[in-house]
Design a protein that fits this description.
about 15% strand; Butyryl-CoA Dehydrogenase, subunit A, domain 3; Butyryl-Coa Dehydrogenase, subunit A, domain 1; four-stranded antiparallel beta sheet; single chain; alpha+beta; about 50% helix
Length: about 375
């Protein structure tokens, strides 16, 4: 169990983690079949509501549990360890961070009091609408615009790759409100699903994380009350920067839990699977793969928690977050591929769930800023 120099997990923290980890069997039920069908695990979502997962980092005034970032991550790592439905875990962190954290840190008191209770208990589901068909990592190229009209903003444009979109009640939508290319050109808005002018597209088929629904979003003269502006006008980059730090730390610590479970599964298989009269773990080629899996999970875990500890101390973690994201996402992808190789033909079969892990792991090198963008960011901060 990981311990940070400044943290020793209390009995309360361990109990919070145990509650979600022990729920793993229920959350994982029919996960292979759900993935094949692209079906959101509504029952699993309700069980996460029951244990208060969505309220972890929020104040009790909104029904939250009042936990800090490190504790939230510790519990989410337990979710990754216990739950084999990676799409459910991804939808949960998307909801918690993209909508909840954005509102908690930047929303007005009125907006938080109205929306955060539903976010905290999971009765309303949140989604993040940033990417566009022609503007993924290039935020300056965003074409969705918001123009002030009296007591409203009128939004026009479209969004792609909206995680949780088909099931969401609330959308945090980023739109251009200033001169193109200006650092203060973007603003964030909370848009409710039944807002006139908002159209939620059909669910989109994708390679992995199929139980986390994805869609496009269309805005045509969509009138949003001015009070639904998240943060100040032109502060969209500030909102997004804060949210993305939390998103990377929370999403990828879930992957660390998944990596730990996968490692233990491979160790057990390597001990019991016999070929040529010996356990396959006795062969150096297999043992090396297991060792590489352990190094990957330990490295990712340490980087993510250490970065979170720095963030809680209000230190600059721009490079740390980028490095953590690279190490965790690429380590998870390598771990998933090694597991398939260790299990051989069985690993390739859908019923074992390992090929599903591999498909899902590919997404981690793309969402929350691609590996290429992270390397570019690190290079720039290194002086290149």
């Amino acid at each position: 169990m990981w311990e940070h120099a400044s943290t020793r997990w209390s009995e309360e923290q361990r109990a919070l983690r145990a509650a979600v980890t022990e729920l793993g069997g229920v959350l994982s039920k029919d996960h292979v079949e759900r993935d094949a069908a692209g079906e959101f695990n509504r029952d699993g979502w309700e069980r996460l509501r029951d244990i208060g997962l969505f309220g972890l980092p929020f104040d009790s005034r909104w029904g939250g549990l009042g936990q800090d970032l490190l504790t939230t991550m510790y519990v989410l790592e337990g979710l990754g360890y216990g739950c084999r439905d990676g799409g459910l875990s991804f939808s949960a962190t998307t909801h918690l961070v993209s909508t909840g954290i954005a509102l908690r840190h930047f929303g007005s008191d009125a907006l938080r009091d109205r929306c955060l209770p539903g976010v905290c208990d999971g009765s309303t589901i949140g989604a993040h609408a940033i990417s566009e068909p022609d503007a993924g990592s290039d935020m300056m190229g965003m074409r969705t615009v918001a123009e002030r009209d009296g007591g409203h903003f009128v939004l026009n444009g479209g969004k792609s790759f909206v995680s949780n979109g088909p099931i969401a009640d609330l959308f945090v939508v980023y739109a251009r409100t200033g001169r193109p290319g200006s650092p203060a050109a973007l603003s964030a808005f909370l848009v409710e699903r039944d807002t006139p002018g908002l159209t939620v597209g059909r669910p989109l088929a994708k390679m992995g994380l199929r139980t986390s629904p994805l869609c496009e979003l269309f805005l045509a003269d969509c009138r949003v009350p001015a009070g639904h502006l998240i943060g100040s006008l032109g502060a969209g980059f500030l909102v997004l920067n804060h949210v993305m730090k939390w998103e990377i730390l929370c999403s990828f610590i879930v992957n660390v839990g998944e990596m730990q479970h996968r490692l233990e599964r491979c160790v057990e298989y390597a001990r019991t699977r016999r070929q040529f009269g010996s356990p396959i773990g006795a062969f150096q080629s297999v043992a090396n793969k297991v060792v590489d899996m352990r190094i990957a999970v330990e490295n990712a875990r340490r980087w993510l928690y250490d970065t979170a500890a720095k963030l809680q101390q209000n230190r600059d973690v721009t490079a740390d977050v980028a490095i953590s994201k690279l190490i965790a996402s690429e380590g998870n992808l390598a771990s998933a591929q090694l597991a398939v190789q260790i299990f051989g033909g069985y690993g390739y079969m859908a019923e074992y769930g390992l090929e599903k892990d591999l498909r899902a792991a590919v997404a981690g090198t793309i969402y929350s800023g691609t590996s290429e963008v992270q390397r570019q960011r690190i290079a720039k901060m290194t002086g290149l």
